[in-house]
Design goal:
By secondary structure, the chain is of the alpha+beta class. The protein is elongated and about 55 Å long. It contains four helices and nine strands; from the N terminus they run βαβββαβαββββα. It has two domains: about 60 residues, 2,3-Dihydroxybiphenyl 1,2-Dioxygenase, domain 1 (Roll); about 70 residues, 2,3-Dihydroxybiphenyl 1,2-Dioxygenase, domain 1 (Roll).
Amino acid sequence: MSKLIFVNLPVADLGRADAFYEAVGAVKNPQFSDHTATCMVISETIHVMLLTHDKFRQFTPKRIADARETTEVLICLSAGSREEVDATVAKAAGAGGRADPGPKQDYGFMYGRSFEDPDGHIWEVMWMDVEAAGAAMADTANA
């Protein structure tokens, strides 16, 4: 069985966060959602738990970081093509996110962009030609 990942993110407005993640392509799992938390399914193995600040505080004694001011994590998702990278970032921007808070990355065999959700959490979206990347790394190692 594949391992699952549940990324837990504190959000200021659960309804706004739900709408944003649905616009980017996630699907709400009502079985694990209520008025304090929403489970958004990115893939069979990747889930994002959007938690109100009060709910998030139940899991940690630490102060919740303001992701607009500090970076607590960078989350990277794979994409099937360069076009899928661009489409995902465009969806995020169209849903109230911010496109490209960091520089675009284009190495020929690898292409990535990022977006920021309405709460400031940064998501990277990356496409890579695995064979070309392996060849490039082998060339660097042999140089």
